[in-house]
TrEMBL record:
PANTHER family: ARRESTIN DOMAIN CONTAINING 3-LIKE-RELATED, ARRESTIN DOMAIN CONTAINING PROTEIN. This is Arrestin C-terminal-like domain-containing protein. Coiled coil: none annotated. The lineage of its organism: Eukaryota, Metazoa, Chordata, Craniata, Vertebrata. Belongs to the arrestin family. InterPro entries: Arrestin-like_C (IPR014752), Arrestin-like_N (IPR011021), Arrestin_C-like (IPR011022), Arrestin_domain-protein (IPR050357), Ig_E-set (IPR014756). GO terms for biological process: nervous system development; protein transport. It comes from the Eukaryota. Residues 190-317 form the Arrestin C-terminal-like domain. It holds the Pfam family Arrestin_C. GO terms for cellular component: cytoplasm; plasma membrane.
Length: 372
């Protein structure tokens, strides 16, 4: 007859999204439901954060494997210590608290019933360290995990796991409007010139927000053209001086045709869904970036286009940024503003007046690219 009916680990949510960020303390419970009296060697809970990448590349008859690993932290807390002979271990039962007395041998003897053990990891994600948000992709992942492990003599260890959804709040100055422009001669199969000005209301967006794009097109050519807008996600995995690239168009808008020798202004909105991966720019082996491409589809010609960087933020950071306002560099101490040392601010939505500076592990580039 098995002695364990259930072995689980849970954490206490800090917000409606169930996420954790820099400076948060994690509390939770390990529950052990026993069908009969059981001897236990030890019980501990472990918190860890790791990033891993792995992919293969075939060249001729040989297959090369590339992999890399980064560990951000690993902490362990004993709930029933090893070799706890002669000690009193406190557990919370489903009926009332009790003390379990340990007989004169190494194992702890727990009676039948439900045993609940509380744990606390204070500031598990410290403010002074920049750690990347949780991520899972085709060739890599960034995972933060709580693991409870129960050891018994002559038995396979029992393990319970609970994944933590970590969202980094290290962000650059991203609340200004973006503006781009391009001008191009259409070439052999079409005579004339096309000019396009495009604006995006800001750079950073959270789930539920709408990205507002405006474009003014002056088609002075002999060809018709179709304005198109694409939001593209770029993921890069790095290992052993090699890179693995993934690019995916996650949203596309096709506007009505702009006829030859006409002018037109288009305006559209792209709503950011809640299942988008967050931007990751502070991990050595995995980066996730977005860019918005506004371009003109012209038959038998190179398409003029403008690229804008886009940052996807966690939902609770939306209040820290203004929309639709053209702004210059932030003054010292402003939310998301870089200081003279190249540091970036850590935004706290629960306390907007508190700003903590941290150094990002990798440089964040914000620029508008025009292709002609």
């Amino acid at each position: 007859m098995p002695s364990i009916r259930a072995f689980t680990i849970t954490y206490d949510a800090l917000n409606e999204y169930g996420t954790f960020s820099e400076g948060d303390t994690i509390t939770g419970s390990v529950t052990l439901a026993l069908l009969k009296e059981t001897k236990v060697e030890s019980l501990f809970v472990k918190a860890k954060g790791d990033a891993d990448v792995r992919w293969t590349h075939k060249s001729g008859d040989r297959t090369h494997t590339y992999s890399a690993h980064r560990r951000y932290f690993k902490l362990k807390q004993f709930l029933i210590p090893e070799g706890s002979k002669g000690r009193i271990i406190k557990a919370t039962l489903n009926i009332e608290p009790m003390n379990t007395k340990i007989p004169s041998f190494s194992d702890t003897v727990l009676p039948q019933g439900n045993h609940v053990y509380r744990f606390t990891f204070i500031a598990l994600f410290p403010n002074y360290r920049s750690m990347p948000s949780s991520f899972k992709g085709h060739h890599g992942k960034i995972v933060y995990m709580l693991v409870a492990k129960l050891s018994r003599s002559w038995k396979i260890d029992s393990v319970a796991e609970k994944e933590l959804n970590f969202v980094s709040k290290c962000v650059p100055n991203l609340h200004m409007q973006q503006v781009g422009s391009t001008k191009k001669e259409t070439g052999i199969f079409s005579r004339g010139q096309v000019h396009m000005d495009a604006t995006v209301d800001k750079t950073a967006y959270a789930a539920g927000e709408t990205m507002v794009i405006t474009a003014k097109i002056n088609n002075s050519t002999s060809s018709d053209m179709i304005p198109k807008i694409s939001l593209v996600r770029d993921v890069v995995y790095r290992a052993s001086s090699s890179n693995k690239f993934e690019s995916q168009t996650v949203h596309k808008v096709v506007e009505n045709c702009v006829k030859s020798q006409t002018q037109r202004e288009i305006r559209c909105g792209i709503k950011i869904p809640c299942d988008y991966l967050l931007t990751i720019q502070n991990c050595e082996i995995i980066t996730v970036d977005y860019h918005l491409k506004v371009y003109l589809d012209i038959s038998f010609a190179f398409d003029p286009k403008i690229k804008f960087p886009v940052v996807i933020l966690p939902p609770d950071m939306v209040s820290g940024f203004q929309s639709g306002v053209a702004m210059g560099p932030s003054p010292g101490g402003a939310v998301g503003g870089p200081n003279s040392c190249g540091l970036f601010t850590l935004y706290d939505p629960m306390n907007p007046n508190r700003i903590n500076s941290v150094t990002l592990n990798s440089h964040i580039k914000i620029s508008t690219t025009v292709f002609v």
